[in-house]
Batch of 3 targets.
Target 1
Amino acid sequence: MDVNQTLFDPSVLVALQARKTLEDLARKGVQYSEVETKAAVYKAYFNVVAADKALVILDSNQVRLRNILAETREIYKEGLVEKLDVDRLVVQVNNLESQQTRPPRDPRSGYRGAQIPDRYAY
């Protein structure tokens, strides 16, 4: 009678080590994805906030420049400034108006796109 039984198979040990390595790799991949997602959300939120602040600044600049233009026109009527000064201010007002039409006027749409999912909230 010939009995041949293997008491220890080294491939089982290799398979267990490979499984552990694969689990570690998968866990690190998930952690990396979470970090990258958080960074992308933070960047998107920052861009939205910066665009919102820029719109507020553009609005206040436009109001201020319109007031200066009105005052300069009155001073021009009195003959104390040249027509060139009034024309320059008109160009500046037109430039500000064209700048305001470039970015989206509703920053809330950007906020909706940059909302942080609940699973990533702190």
Target 2
Amino acid sequence: MMQLSYFFLLAMLSGIATAAETANISPSTGLLQIFLGLIAVLMLMAFAAWFFKKIGPITSATKVSVKVVGGVSVGNREKIMVVEIADQWIVVGVTANQINTLSTMPKQEQLTVETSSTIPENQFSTWLKRTLDKRNQQM
């Protein structure tokens, strides 16, 4: 019981001491402290940004190159994608909640060359080119 009364007495005295200390601080001093605190935080953030830019991104020890070869959207949030890892292509199904392996196959060089040459030309660009050519011939 005695310890509890000492605790309450100490709490009351510390409250009185802090009230007396705050009474002596002028409003401009409080505003100056807030402004200096803001400047310190902004300088700390600028230093952290400079430091992280200087050290660069953190890379893992294993350097496995992962490249997305292609993909097709099959639904609102579902895709089928072909991912190249080392010398292997992996066909994966991607949803909002999970990724499933559908198939694996060896890397195929012919398909990448064929797909780049068989890309259909944009109809709008063809129409625009014809229109501009006709306009230039008339002038």
Target 3
Amino acid sequence: MSDSWGMSDDGRRRVLLVEDEEFTRTMVSEALETNGLAVRSVATVAEALASIKDFEPHAVISDLDLGSGPSGADLLNRIADETPWVGLVVLTSHASPELAIRPGTHLPAHVCYVMKAPTTLSIYVRYLCLYL
């Protein structure tokens, strides 16, 4: 999967994208790949947790509302606990996390919060590519 520098076999940084809306998942994935990142995109928390082990992402980008079942906040908290070196990004349409997560739930302290908007997304993709 990766060489001793932590890059993918083809020399790119790896990003796991977790988004239940197919259109958004496809658009974000293509934007990240166009900017030189290796992307695996999944729709559920279960798929994301399985991908963490074999894909070994440098960063995880997750929507907060993933439909029924565990939320993006649940996923990001588990990743923060189990693999704290992985960068965490929330990509959501909500202006505030309090509007998108269940009461009593929190986001990890070091999460980056990005709203889904065309201009914000393009700026974010460029920033992520520079950061990684």
